[in-house]
Model the fold of this input.
Amino acid sequence: MQREIVLVEGAGFCFGVKRAIDIAFDVAKIHKKGVFTLGPIIHNPQVVEKLQELGVKPIEDISEQNDIKTLIIRAHGISKKRLDELKSLGYEIIDATCPFVKKAQSIAEKLDSEGYQVLIIGDKEHPEVKGIFSYAGQKAVVVSNCNEIPILNKKLGIIQQTTQPLSKVKEILNAIINSLSEFEEIRIFNTLCNFTAKRLESTGKVAKDVDIMIVIGGKNSANTTQLANLCKKMGVKTYHVENTQEIDKNWFKDVKKIGITAGASTPQWIIDEIIDKIKCL
Amino acid sequence: MQREIVLVEGAGFCFGVKRAIDIAFDVAKIHKKGVFTLGPIIHNPQVVEKLQELGVKPIEDISEQNDIKTLIIRAHGISKKRLDELKSLGYEIIDATCPFVKKAQSIAEKLDSEGYQVLIIGDKEHPEVKGIFSYAGQKAVVVSNCNEIPILNKKLGIIQQTTQPLSKVKEILNAIINSLSEFEEIRIFNTLCNFTAKRLESTGKVAKDVDIMIVIGGKNSANTTQLANLCKKMGVKTYHVENTQEIDKNWFKDVKKIGITAGASTPQWIIDEIIDKIKCL
Done:
Protein backbone atom coordinates (compact mmCIF):
# COMPACT_ATOMS: atom_id res chain seq x y z
CA MET A 1 0.00 0.00 0.00
CA GLN A 2 1.36 3.43 -1.00
CA ARG A 3 1.58 5.79 1.99
CA GLU A 4 2.18 9.51 2.00
CA ILE A 5 4.56 10.92 4.61
CA VAL A 6 4.35 14.63 5.49
CA LEU A 7 7.27 16.08 7.47
CA VAL A 8 6.42 19.22 9.45
CA GLU A 9 8.41 22.30 8.41
CA GLY A 10 10.90 23.18 11.12
CA ALA A 11 10.73 19.77 12.83
CA GLY A 12 13.82 18.97 14.89
CA PHE A 13 16.79 21.17 15.75
CA CYS A 14 16.25 24.88 15.95
CA PHE A 15 18.43 27.13 13.83
CA GLY A 16 20.89 27.96 16.64
CA VAL A 17 21.43 24.36 17.76
CA LYS A 18 21.77 23.11 14.18
CA ARG A 19 24.30 25.83 13.45
CA ALA A 20 26.36 25.01 16.58
CA ILE A 21 26.44 21.28 15.75
CA ASP A 22 27.39 21.98 12.13
CA ILE A 23 30.22 24.18 13.39
CA ALA A 24 31.41 21.40 15.74
CA PHE A 25 31.43 18.82 12.93
CA ASP A 26 33.25 21.26 10.63
CA VAL A 27 35.91 21.95 13.28
CA ALA A 28 36.31 18.18 13.83
CA LYS A 29 37.16 17.79 10.14
CA ILE A 30 39.90 20.42 10.29
CA HIS A 31 41.52 19.75 13.67
CA LYS A 32 42.24 16.20 14.61
CA LYS A 33 43.30 16.84 18.20
CA GLY A 34 42.65 19.13 21.15
CA VAL A 35 39.10 20.15 20.24
CA PHE A 36 36.64 20.51 23.12
CA THR A 37 33.13 21.86 23.58
CA LEU A 38 32.48 23.81 26.76
CA GLY A 39 29.70 21.64 28.18
CA PRO A 40 27.90 19.14 25.90
CA ILE A 41 27.03 20.87 22.63
CA ILE A 42 23.41 19.63 23.01
CA HIS A 43 21.56 17.51 25.58
CA ASN A 44 21.40 14.58 23.18
CA PRO A 45 23.79 11.69 23.97
CA GLN A 46 23.86 10.41 20.38
CA VAL A 47 25.09 13.73 19.00
CA VAL A 48 27.70 14.07 21.74
CA GLU A 49 28.85 10.48 21.07
CA LYS A 50 29.15 11.05 17.32
CA LEU A 51 31.30 14.13 17.96
CA GLN A 52 33.47 12.22 20.42
CA GLU A 53 34.12 9.59 17.75
CA LEU A 54 35.48 12.45 15.63
CA GLY A 55 37.64 13.71 18.51
CA VAL A 56 35.48 16.54 19.86
CA LYS A 57 35.07 16.09 23.62
CA PRO A 58 32.78 17.92 26.01
CA ILE A 59 34.39 19.35 29.15
CA GLU A 60 32.91 21.36 32.02
CA ASP A 61 36.13 22.57 33.58
CA ILE A 62 39.12 23.60 31.48
CA SER A 63 41.55 22.71 34.30
CA GLU A 64 40.61 19.04 33.77
CA GLN A 65 42.50 19.05 30.48
CA ASN A 66 45.92 20.23 29.50
CA ASP A 67 45.80 19.37 25.81
CA ILE A 68 43.20 22.01 24.86
CA LYS A 69 43.87 23.76 21.58
CA THR A 70 40.42 24.69 20.37
CA LEU A 71 37.31 25.43 22.45
CA ILE A 72 33.85 25.52 20.96
CA ILE A 73 31.29 27.74 22.73
CA ARG A 74 27.87 26.11 22.46
CA ALA A 75 24.62 27.75 21.25
CA HIS A 76 23.60 29.02 24.74
CA GLY A 77 26.68 31.23 24.94
CA ILE A 78 28.79 31.93 28.03
CA SER A 79 29.49 34.90 30.28
CA LYS A 80 31.55 37.84 29.11
CA LYS A 81 34.06 37.24 31.91
CA ARG A 82 34.55 33.57 31.03
CA LEU A 83 34.93 34.38 27.32
CA ASP A 84 37.60 36.97 28.13
CA GLU A 85 39.38 34.49 30.44
CA LEU A 86 39.42 31.77 27.78
CA LYS A 87 40.70 34.20 25.18
CA SER A 88 43.48 35.35 27.52
CA LEU A 89 44.60 31.73 27.97
CA GLY A 90 45.48 31.64 24.28
CA TYR A 91 43.02 28.94 23.14
CA GLU A 92 41.48 29.13 19.72
CA ILE A 93 37.87 30.04 20.50
CA ILE A 94 35.16 28.98 18.07
CA ASP A 95 32.07 30.88 19.15
CA ALA A 96 28.98 28.90 18.15
CA THR A 97 26.66 31.04 20.31
CA CYS A 98 23.25 31.24 18.60
CA PRO A 99 22.98 34.57 16.73
CA PHE A 100 19.67 35.27 18.52
CA VAL A 101 21.39 34.83 21.90
CA LYS A 102 24.30 36.95 20.68
CA LYS A 103 21.79 39.67 19.73
CA ALA A 104 20.22 39.55 23.22
CA GLN A 105 23.73 39.83 24.77
CA SER A 106 24.59 42.84 22.66
CA ILE A 107 21.24 44.59 23.37
CA ALA A 108 21.80 43.99 27.11
CA GLU A 109 25.26 45.57 26.86
CA LYS A 110 23.96 48.55 24.86
CA LEU A 111 21.04 49.17 27.27
CA ASP A 112 23.38 49.11 30.25
CA SER A 113 25.84 51.49 28.58
CA GLU A 114 22.96 53.90 27.86
CA GLY A 115 21.96 54.00 31.54
CA TYR A 116 19.01 51.59 31.53
CA GLN A 117 18.49 49.03 34.26
CA VAL A 118 18.25 45.76 32.33
CA LEU A 119 15.46 43.33 33.18
CA ILE A 120 15.75 39.85 31.64
CA ILE A 121 12.59 37.77 31.49
CA GLY A 122 13.81 34.19 31.88
CA ASP A 123 15.14 31.43 34.11
CA LYS A 124 18.13 32.72 36.09
CA GLU A 125 19.68 29.23 36.31
CA HIS A 126 19.68 28.72 32.54
CA PRO A 127 23.15 28.98 30.91
CA GLU A 128 21.78 31.31 28.21
CA VAL A 129 20.44 33.72 30.84
CA LYS A 130 23.68 33.58 32.85
CA GLY A 131 25.53 34.58 29.69
CA ILE A 132 23.16 37.44 28.79
CA PHE A 133 23.12 38.62 32.43
CA SER A 134 26.90 39.03 32.38
CA TYR A 135 26.51 41.66 29.62
CA ALA A 136 23.64 43.49 31.36
CA GLY A 137 25.55 45.49 33.98
CA GLN A 138 25.52 45.84 37.76
CA LYS A 139 21.84 46.81 38.09
CA ALA A 140 20.47 43.95 35.96
CA VAL A 141 17.72 41.66 37.27
CA VAL A 142 16.23 38.38 36.06
CA VAL A 143 12.49 37.86 36.46
CA SER A 144 10.69 34.59 35.79
CA ASN A 145 7.19 35.42 37.01
CA CYS A 146 4.90 38.30 38.04
CA ASN A 147 5.38 37.66 41.75
CA GLU A 148 9.08 38.34 41.76
CA ILE A 149 9.27 41.76 40.10
CA PRO A 150 11.55 43.88 42.31
CA ILE A 151 11.54 47.66 42.73
CA LEU A 152 12.93 48.92 39.45
CA ASN A 153 14.79 51.97 38.18
CA LYS A 154 12.92 54.75 36.36
CA LYS A 155 14.66 53.94 33.08
CA LEU A 156 14.11 50.29 32.32
CA GLY A 157 15.28 48.13 29.40
CA ILE A 158 13.60 44.74 28.97
CA ILE A 159 14.82 41.70 27.04
CA GLN A 160 13.88 38.01 27.10
CA GLN A 161 15.59 34.62 27.21
CA THR A 162 15.13 33.58 23.56
CA THR A 163 13.03 30.51 24.33
CA GLN A 164 10.58 32.00 26.88
CA PRO A 165 6.88 31.30 26.17
CA LEU A 166 5.24 34.40 24.69
CA SER A 167 2.29 34.10 27.09
CA LYS A 168 4.56 34.37 30.17
CA VAL A 169 6.48 37.28 28.68
CA LYS A 170 3.24 39.19 28.02
CA GLU A 171 2.04 38.54 31.56
CA ILE A 172 5.22 40.02 33.09
CA LEU A 173 5.24 42.97 30.67
CA ASN A 174 1.62 43.76 31.53
CA ALA A 175 2.46 43.69 35.25
CA ILE A 176 5.30 46.17 34.65
CA ILE A 177 3.10 48.42 32.47
CA ASN A 178 0.63 48.51 35.37
CA SER A 179 3.24 50.50 37.31
CA LEU A 180 3.82 52.89 34.38
CA SER A 181 3.55 55.96 36.60
CA GLU A 182 6.73 54.86 38.42
CA PHE A 183 8.80 54.94 35.23
CA GLU A 184 10.23 57.58 32.94
CA GLU A 185 10.83 55.10 30.16
CA ILE A 186 10.25 51.41 29.51
CA ARG A 187 12.14 50.10 26.52
CA ILE A 188 11.21 46.60 25.40
CA PHE A 189 13.27 44.66 22.87
CA ASN A 190 11.75 41.50 21.46
CA THR A 191 14.61 38.97 21.73
CA LEU A 192 12.36 35.91 21.51
CA CYS A 193 13.18 33.25 18.95
CA ASN A 194 9.79 32.35 17.60
CA PHE A 195 10.98 29.01 16.25
CA THR A 196 9.19 26.91 18.90
CA ALA A 197 5.89 28.74 18.36
CA LYS A 198 6.22 28.34 14.58
CA ARG A 199 6.96 24.61 14.85
CA LEU A 200 3.89 24.18 17.04
CA GLU A 201 1.79 26.05 14.48
CA SER A 202 3.12 24.01 11.54
CA THR A 203 2.58 20.77 13.47
CA GLY A 204 -1.04 21.76 14.09
CA LYS A 205 -1.57 22.38 10.37
CA VAL A 206 -0.16 18.98 9.38
CA ALA A 207 -2.06 17.15 12.18
CA LYS A 208 -5.34 18.40 10.74
CA ASP A 209 -4.65 16.68 7.46
CA VAL A 210 -3.23 13.21 8.28
CA ASP A 211 -4.40 9.84 9.66
CA ILE A 212 -1.69 9.51 12.32
CA MET A 213 1.09 11.69 13.76
CA ILE A 214 4.53 10.43 14.80
CA VAL A 215 6.14 12.88 17.25
CA ILE A 216 9.89 12.27 17.69
CA GLY A 217 11.87 13.43 20.73
CA GLY A 218 12.79 12.74 24.33
CA LYS A 219 9.89 11.56 26.50
CA ASN A 220 11.06 14.10 29.07
CA SER A 221 11.42 16.92 26.55
CA ALA A 222 8.92 19.69 27.37
CA ASN A 223 8.68 21.00 23.83
CA THR A 224 8.25 17.51 22.29
CA THR A 225 5.51 16.64 24.79
CA GLN A 226 3.82 19.93 23.92
CA LEU A 227 3.81 18.89 20.25
CA ALA A 228 2.33 15.46 21.09
CA ASN A 229 -0.34 16.99 23.31
CA LEU A 230 -1.38 19.41 20.59
CA CYS A 231 -1.82 16.55 18.07
CA LYS A 232 -3.84 14.47 20.56
CA LYS A 233 -6.01 17.47 21.34
CA MET A 234 -6.74 17.82 17.64
CA GLY A 235 -8.15 14.28 17.66
CA VAL A 236 -5.50 12.60 15.50
CA LYS A 237 -3.98 9.28 16.62
CA THR A 238 -0.55 10.27 17.98
CA TYR A 239 2.59 8.28 18.87
CA HIS A 240 5.45 9.90 20.78
CA VAL A 241 8.69 7.99 20.08
CA GLU A 242 12.39 8.45 20.80
CA ASN A 243 13.87 6.11 18.18
CA THR A 244 13.20 3.60 15.38
CA GLN A 245 12.99 0.65 17.79
CA GLU A 246 9.70 1.95 19.14
CA ILE A 247 8.00 2.07 15.75
CA ASP A 248 5.27 -0.63 15.52
CA LYS A 249 4.01 -1.68 12.10
CA ASN A 250 0.51 -2.32 13.49
CA TRP A 251 0.07 1.44 13.89
CA PHE A 252 0.05 1.88 10.11
CA LYS A 253 -2.73 -0.57 9.12
CA ASP A 254 -5.13 1.19 6.73
CA VAL A 255 -3.19 4.45 7.23
CA LYS A 256 -2.77 6.52 4.06
CA LYS A 257 -1.24 9.75 5.30
CA ILE A 258 1.35 10.04 8.09
CA GLY A 259 2.49 13.30 9.70
CA ILE A 260 5.94 13.55 11.27
CA THR A 261 7.22 16.19 13.66
CA ALA A 262 10.11 16.41 16.13
CA GLY A 263 11.22 18.42 19.17
CA ALA A 264 14.11 20.89 19.23
CA SER A 265 16.62 18.33 20.54
CA THR A 266 15.95 15.68 17.88
CA PRO A 267 18.74 15.29 15.29
CA GLN A 268 17.81 15.05 11.62
CA TRP A 269 19.32 11.55 11.27
CA ILE A 270 16.87 10.13 13.82
CA ILE A 271 14.02 11.72 11.87
CA ASP A 272 15.47 10.28 8.63
CA GLU A 273 15.89 6.78 10.14
CA ILE A 274 12.28 6.76 11.31
CA ILE A 275 11.00 7.94 7.91
CA ASP A 276 13.07 5.20 6.20
CA LYS A 277 11.71 2.56 8.58
CA ILE A 278 8.10 3.64 7.98
CA LYS A 279 8.68 3.56 4.19
CA CYS A 280 9.94 -0.03 4.43
CA LEU A 281 7.07 -1.36 6.56
CA MET B 1 -18.24 79.61 66.10
CA GLN B 2 -14.64 78.96 65.09
CA ARG B 3 -14.40 76.90 61.92
CA GLU B 4 -11.37 75.22 60.45
CA ILE B 5 -10.84 75.40 56.70
CA VAL B 6 -8.57 72.84 54.98
CA LEU B 7 -7.50 73.62 51.41
CA VAL B 8 -6.50 70.58 49.37
CA GLU B 9 -2.88 70.62 48.17
CA GLY B 10 -2.76 71.19 44.41
CA ALA B 11 -6.35 72.50 44.21
CA GLY B 12 -6.96 74.69 41.16
CA PHE B 13 -4.68 75.41 38.23
CA CYS B 14 -2.17 72.80 37.20
CA PHE B 15 1.49 73.78 37.02
CA GLY B 16 1.49 74.34 33.23
CA VAL B 17 -1.65 76.48 33.15
CA LYS B 18 -0.53 78.54 36.16
CA ARG B 19 2.85 79.12 34.54
CA ALA B 20 1.28 80.21 31.21
CA ILE B 21 -1.05 82.66 32.97
CA ASP B 22 1.78 84.06 35.07
CA ILE B 23 3.81 84.57 31.89
CA ALA B 24 0.85 86.38 30.25
CA PHE B 25 0.43 88.73 33.23
CA ASP B 26 4.19 89.38 33.31
CA VAL B 27 4.24 90.19 29.59
CA ALA B 28 1.23 92.50 30.09
CA LYS B 29 3.23 94.48 32.66
CA ILE B 30 6.16 95.01 30.26
CA HIS B 31 4.42 95.61 26.93
CA LYS B 32 1.45 97.92 26.88
CA LYS B 33 0.38 97.28 23.28
CA GLY B 34 0.28 94.60 20.61
CA VAL B 35 0.28 91.57 22.96
CA PHE B 36 -1.92 88.64 21.90
CA THR B 37 -2.44 85.07 23.02
CA LEU B 38 -2.92 82.50 20.28
CA GLY B 39 -6.33 81.21 21.33
CA PRO B 40 -7.63 81.97 24.85
CA ILE B 41 -4.87 81.28 27.39
CA ILE B 42 -7.33 79.13 29.37
CA HIS B 43 -11.00 78.17 29.00
CA ASN B 44 -11.99 80.46 31.85
CA PRO B 45 -13.75 83.71 30.83
CA GLN B 46 -12.72 85.56 33.99
CA VAL B 47 -9.02 85.02 33.42
CA VAL B 48 -9.30 85.98 29.76
CA GLU B 49 -11.25 89.12 30.76
CA LYS B 50 -8.67 90.14 33.37
CA LEU B 51 -5.90 89.81 30.78
CA GLN B 52 -7.89 91.81 28.24
CA GLU B 53 -8.19 94.65 30.79
CA LEU B 54 -4.38 94.64 30.86
CA GLY B 55 -4.21 94.73 27.05
CA VAL B 56 -3.58 91.03 26.30
CA LYS B 57 -6.12 89.86 23.71
CA PRO B 58 -6.86 86.34 22.50
CA ILE B 59 -6.90 85.80 18.73
CA GLU B 60 -7.47 82.67 16.68
CA ASP B 61 -6.22 83.95 13.34
CA ILE B 62 -3.23 86.26 13.07
CA SER B 63 -4.54 87.78 9.81
CA GLU B 64 -7.37 89.33 11.85
CA GLN B 65 -4.89 91.75 13.42
CA ASN B 66 -2.22 93.96 11.97
CA ASP B 67 -0.90 95.45 15.20
CA ILE B 68 0.65 92.25 16.53
CA LYS B 69 4.01 92.73 18.22
CA THR B 70 4.12 89.92 20.77
CA LEU B 71 2.41 86.53 20.57
CA ILE B 72 2.03 84.28 23.59
CA ILE B 73 1.82 80.54 22.89
CA ARG B 74 -0.51 78.97 25.47
CA ALA B 75 0.20 75.91 27.65
CA HIS B 76 -1.12 73.36 25.08
CA GLY B 77 1.57 74.39 22.59
CA ILE B 78 1.20 74.65 18.81
CA SER B 79 2.47 72.81 15.77
CA LYS B 80 6.09 73.02 14.69
CA LYS B 81 5.02 74.43 11.31
CA ARG B 82 2.91 77.18 12.85
CA LEU B 83 5.66 78.11 15.31
CA ASP B 84 8.16 78.40 12.44
CA GLU B 85 5.66 80.51 10.42
CA LEU B 86 5.07 82.89 13.31
CA LYS B 87 8.79 83.23 13.95
CA SER B 88 9.40 83.99 10.26
CA LEU B 89 6.82 86.80 10.41
CA GLY B 90 9.07 88.61 12.87
CA TYR B 91 6.78 88.63 15.90
CA GLU B 92 8.22 88.37 19.36
CA ILE B 93 7.18 84.87 20.41
CA ILE B 94 6.69 84.16 24.12
CA ASP B 95 6.43 80.40 24.34
CA ALA B 96 4.33 79.49 27.40
CA THR B 97 3.94 75.87 26.30
CA CYS B 98 3.80 73.67 29.42
CA PRO B 99 7.23 72.11 30.03
CA PHE B 100 5.60 68.65 30.20
CA VAL B 101 4.05 69.20 26.75
CA LYS B 102 7.37 70.55 25.47
CA LYS B 103 9.05 67.39 26.74
CA ALA B 104 6.49 65.21 24.89
CA GLN B 105 7.13 67.25 21.70
CA SER B 106 10.86 66.81 21.97
CA ILE B 107 10.62 63.06 22.69
CA ALA B 108 8.33 62.71 19.64
CA GLU B 109 10.91 64.49 17.47
CA LYS B 110 13.79 62.40 18.84
CA LEU B 111 11.91 59.10 18.37
CA ASP B 112 11.08 60.02 14.77
CA SER B 113 14.67 61.02 14.02
CA GLU B 114 15.87 57.65 15.41
CA GLY B 115 13.58 55.72 13.04
CA TYR B 116 10.72 54.86 15.37
CA GLN B 117 7.09 55.12 14.31
CA VAL B 118 5.58 57.40 16.95
CA LEU B 119 2.27 56.41 18.54
CA ILE B 120 0.56 59.09 20.64
CA ILE B 121 -2.09 57.95 23.10
CA GLY B 122 -4.58 60.82 23.21
CA ASP B 123 -7.40 62.74 21.58
CA LYS B 124 -6.41 63.66 18.02
CA GLU B 125 -8.63 66.78 18.05
CA HIS B 126 -6.98 68.22 21.17
CA PRO B 127 -4.66 71.20 20.50
CA GLU B 128 -1.91 69.66 22.64
CA VAL B 129 -1.99 66.43 20.57
CA LYS B 130 -2.02 68.38 17.29
CA GLY B 131 1.12 70.16 18.45
CA ILE B 132 2.93 66.98 19.58
CA PHE B 133 1.83 65.17 16.39
CA SER B 134 3.55 67.83 14.26
CA TYR B 135 6.88 66.84 15.84
CA ALA B 136 6.31 63.10 15.48
CA GLY B 137 7.07 62.61 11.77
CA GLN B 138 5.27 61.23 8.73
CA LYS B 139 4.54 57.78 10.16
CA ALA B 140 3.02 59.03 13.45
CA VAL B 141 -0.42 57.86 14.60
CA VAL B 142 -2.79 58.97 17.36
CA VAL B 143 -4.73 56.30 19.23
CA SER B 144 -7.51 57.03 21.72
CA ASN B 145 -8.78 53.51 22.42
CA CYS B 146 -7.96 49.83 21.98
CA ASN B 147 -10.29 49.41 19.00
CA GLU B 148 -8.46 51.84 16.78
CA ILE B 149 -4.89 50.51 16.96
CA PRO B 150 -3.66 50.36 13.35
CA ILE B 151 -1.03 48.05 11.87
CA LEU B 152 2.22 49.38 13.31
CA ASN B 153 5.88 49.42 12.35
CA LYS B 154 8.32 46.96 13.94
CA LYS B 155 10.11 49.74 15.82
CA LEU B 156 7.54 51.65 17.82
CA GLY B 157 7.90 54.67 20.11
CA ILE B 158 4.96 55.47 22.40
CA ILE B 159 4.12 58.73 24.19
CA GLN B 160 0.94 60.11 25.77
CA GLN B 161 -1.06 63.32 25.78
CA THR B 162 -0.05 64.69 29.21
CA THR B 163 -3.57 64.62 30.67
CA GLN B 164 -4.68 61.14 29.56
CA PRO B 165 -6.13 58.94 32.32
CA LEU B 166 -3.57 56.35 33.44
CA SER B 167 -6.16 53.55 33.23
CA LYS B 168 -6.82 54.19 29.53
CA VAL B 169 -3.10 54.43 28.76
CA LYS B 170 -2.45 51.08 30.46
CA GLU B 171 -5.29 49.45 28.53
CA ILE B 172 -3.87 50.57 25.17
CA LEU B 173 -0.30 49.62 26.14
CA ASN B 174 -1.46 46.16 27.20
CA ALA B 175 -3.24 45.71 23.86
CA ILE B 176 -0.01 46.62 22.02
CA ILE B 177 2.10 44.32 24.25
CA ASN B 178 -0.28 41.52 23.30
CA SER B 179 1.10 41.75 19.75
CA LEU B 180 4.73 41.71 20.99
CA SER B 181 5.76 39.07 18.46
CA GLU B 182 5.07 41.55 15.65
CA PHE B 183 7.60 44.07 17.01
CA GLU B 184 11.37 44.33 17.21
CA GLU B 185 11.20 47.04 19.83
CA ILE B 186 8.54 48.92 21.78
CA ARG B 187 9.85 52.04 23.50
CA ILE B 188 7.46 53.67 25.94
CA PHE B 189 8.09 57.13 27.39
CA ASN B 190 5.91 58.21 30.29
CA THR B 191 4.85 61.75 29.29
CA LEU B 192 1.85 61.85 31.61
CA CYS B 193 1.49 64.77 34.01
CA ASN B 194 0.28 63.12 37.17
CA PHE B 195 -1.11 66.35 38.59
CA THR B 196 -4.77 65.40 38.12
CA ALA B 197 -4.28 62.01 39.76
CA LYS B 198 -2.41 63.62 42.67
CA ARG B 199 -5.13 66.25 43.20
CA LEU B 200 -7.76 63.51 43.27
CA GLU B 201 -5.71 61.60 45.84
CA SER B 202 -5.18 64.67 48.07
CA THR B 203 -8.89 65.55 47.82
CA GLY B 204 -9.79 62.06 49.00
CA LYS B 205 -7.48 62.40 52.01
CA VAL B 206 -9.03 65.74 53.06
CA ALA B 207 -12.61 64.51 52.45
CA LYS B 208 -12.04 61.71 54.97
CA ASP B 209 -11.32 64.21 57.70
CA VAL B 210 -13.90 67.06 57.35
CA ASP B 211 -17.63 67.70 57.90
CA ILE B 212 -18.35 69.15 54.46
CA MET B 213 -16.48 69.57 51.17
CA ILE B 214 -16.75 72.60 48.86
CA VAL B 215 -15.65 71.67 45.33
CA ILE B 216 -15.00 74.73 43.15
CA GLY B 217 -15.06 74.64 39.34
CA GLY B 218 -17.22 74.68 36.21
CA LYS B 219 -20.33 72.48 36.48
CA ASN B 220 -19.38 71.13 33.03
CA SER B 221 -15.74 70.53 33.98
CA ALA B 222 -14.98 66.82 33.85
CA ASN B 223 -12.14 66.92 36.35
CA THR B 224 -14.12 69.08 38.86
CA THR B 225 -17.12 66.74 38.64
CA GLN B 226 -14.76 63.83 39.22
CA LEU B 227 -13.55 65.52 42.44
CA ALA B 228 -17.14 66.12 43.63
CA ASN B 229 -18.15 62.54 42.86
CA LEU B 230 -15.21 61.18 44.81
CA CYS B 231 -16.18 63.25 47.89
CA LYS B 232 -19.85 62.17 47.67
CA LYS B 233 -18.76 58.54 47.32
CA MET B 234 -16.75 58.93 50.52
CA GLY B 235 -19.96 59.89 52.32
CA VAL B 236 -19.11 63.50 53.11
CA LYS B 237 -21.70 66.25 52.40
CA THR B 238 -20.43 67.87 49.20
CA TYR B 239 -21.30 71.14 47.39
CA HIS B 240 -20.06 71.79 43.84
CA VAL B 241 -19.98 75.56 43.22
CA GLU B 242 -18.68 77.88 40.50
CA ASN B 243 -18.49 81.17 42.45
CA THR B 244 -19.11 82.95 45.79
CA GLN B 245 -22.74 83.75 44.92
CA GLU B 246 -23.67 80.10 45.23
CA ILE B 247 -22.35 79.77 48.80
CA ASP B 248 -25.27 79.30 51.24
CA LYS B 249 -24.64 79.99 54.93
CA ASN B 250 -27.14 77.28 55.93
CA TRP B 251 -24.68 74.66 54.71
CA PHE B 252 -22.32 75.54 57.55
CA LYS B 253 -24.62 75.12 60.58
CA ASP B 254 -22.86 73.00 63.22
CA VAL B 255 -19.97 72.47 60.81
CA LYS B 256 -16.53 72.53 62.42
CA LYS B 257 -14.18 71.46 59.65
CA ILE B 258 -14.55 72.43 55.97
CA GLY B 259 -12.54 70.94 53.11
CA ILE B 260 -11.97 72.93 49.91
CA THR B 261 -10.79 71.65 46.56
CA ALA B 262 -10.92 72.99 43.00
CA GLY B 263 -10.65 71.74 39.40
CA ALA B 264 -7.77 72.50 37.02
CA SER B 265 -9.51 75.48 35.39
CA THR B 266 -10.31 77.31 38.66
CA PRO B 267 -8.20 80.43 39.29
CA GLN B 268 -6.72 80.97 42.74
CA TRP B 269 -8.64 84.23 43.29
CA ILE B 270 -12.00 82.43 43.03
CA ILE B 271 -10.75 79.93 45.62
CA ASP B 272 -9.56 82.86 47.82
CA GLU B 273 -12.89 84.74 47.48
CA ILE B 274 -14.83 81.66 48.51
CA ILE B 275 -12.57 81.02 51.50
CA ASP B 276 -12.97 84.68 52.56
CA LYS B 277 -16.75 84.45 52.24
CA ILE B 278 -16.90 81.29 54.35
CA LYS B 279 -14.70 82.89 57.00
CA CYS B 280 -17.12 85.86 57.24
CA LEU B 281 -20.30 83.78 57.53
